[in-house]
Amino acid sequence: MEREIVTVPHPVLRKKARPVTKFDGRFQKLVDDMIETMRAAPGVGLAAPQVNVLQQVIVVEYGEDEDSPPQLYVLANPRILSTSTETEVGVEGCLSIPGWVGEVERPLSIEVRGQNRYGNPVRYRLSGWVARIFQHEIDHLHGVLFTDRALRVWQPEEPVPDNV
Ligand SMILES: [Zn+2]
User: Fold this and answer.
1) Cβ-based neighbours of 26, under 8 Å, separated by 6 or more
2) Active-site residue flag, 137
3) Domain presence at residue 71
4) The CATH number of the domain where 74 resides is what?
5) In contact, 97 and 117? CB cutoff 8 Å
6) Measured in whole angstroms, how far is the alpha carbon of residue 164 from the centre of its chain?
7) Residue 64 dihedral angles phi and psi, to the nearest 5°
8) Rounded to 5 degrees, what are φ and ψ at 154?
9) How many whole angstroms from 68 Cα to the centroid of ligand 1?
10) Those residues with Cβ within 8 angstroms of residue 153's Cβ, 6 or more apart along the chain or in another chain
């Protein structure tokens, strides 16, 4: 079931999400709903606070190029273990801040750990745009928006393709 994406200035976007402790049927439904909502938006990432749920879970679906199918990630209780010293400036948009984009400098690569949708531990090394998506979504779990980090923000005439 598609859920409503909340937008600024909804206060839930500024709150800290709680760790997921029960990987039960209700949680599976939340994950399925988040995937459906992300795809319908359309977007390449979504964090639970964006559908008004204060739980630490994100979904990301992204393919590096057109030849490879997009990979779907579901990550609960994510923790960034390490980041590269090398950074990159990229233009980000957010499904919760419609109409705006911003230039954000972030580490190029990260190592992240957490749990999959069944509660099993997982760990990923990510680089490039998918690493940026993860950092953007994990920020959402801490009440941080890209506009807090942006070097500058503006309203583009054309919508950006990769909203998160
Ligand atoms: Zn966002």
Assistant:
1) none
2) yes
3) yes
4) 3.90.45.10
5) no
6) 6
7) -65, -35
8) -155, 170
9) 24
10) 100, 101, 102, 147
* Cis before 42 (ω within 30): yes
Residue located via tokens 């583009």: 156
From ligand 1's centre to the CA of 93, what distance in Å?
Answer: 7
Residue 161 lies in a domain: no
- Domains contained in the chain, number: 1
pLDDT in tens, the chain (164 residues): 999 999 999 999 999 999 999 999 999 999 999 999 999 999 999 999 999 999 999 999 998 777 778 999 999 999 999 999 999 999 999 999 999 999 999 999 999 999 999 999 999 999 999 999 999 999 999 999 999 999 999 999 877 667 77
Q: 66 C-alpha vs ligand 1 centroid, how far in Å?
A: 23
Prediction pTM value: 0.96
Q: What is the DSSP string of 56-110?
A: SEEEEEE-SSTTSPPEEEEEEEEEEEEE-S-EEEEEEE-TTSTT-EEEEEEESEE
Alpha carbon of 116 to ligand 1 centroid (Å) = 21
Catalytic residue among 2, 61, 111, 137: 137
- With beta carbons less than 8 A apart as the criterion, state whether 49 and 18 touch: no
Q: Provide the domain limits for residue 126.
A: 11-154
